[in-house]
Amino acid sequence: MTVERFLDRYDVLLLDIGAVKLFQIIFQDVIDRLCINPSKLVYKGDSISRDVAGAKKAGISAIWINSSNSYSGEIQYQPDLMIGDLTELLFV
């Protein structure tokens, strides 16, 4: 299974919940469905305000895919890792 296929599998699960990612409920639903401690999860996304903030509020580590190479030090929820594209995950 490739990295993209593994990650996309859970993207579909998130869409099935029917909530916006910035709300903690969507991440809590995933935690409950997987029966796992949030500290064992990592979420990847390309939006600081939705993906990173939502994951961090739920106690999940967050990887920000910053493909446009834009970064502001004045971000409320800092990602645990910032990458340019998914291929960089292979070297983490």
Task: Give a verbal description of the structure.
The longest helix is centred in the first third of the chain and has 15 residues, at 3-17. The chain is built from three helices and three strands. It has a single domain (3-86), classed as Rossmann fold, CATH 3.40.50.1000. The chain is globular and about 35 Å long. 39% of the residues lie in helices and 13% in strands. It has helices at residues 3-17, 24-34, 48-57, and strands at 42-45, 61-65, 81-83. The protein is α/β, with parallel strands linked by helices and 92 residues long. The model is unreliable at 1-8 (pLDDT under 50).
How are the SSEs placed, and which strands pair?
Layout: H1 3-17, H2 24-34, E1 42-45, H3 48-57, E2 61-65, E3 81-83
Parallel strand pairs: 1-2, 2-3
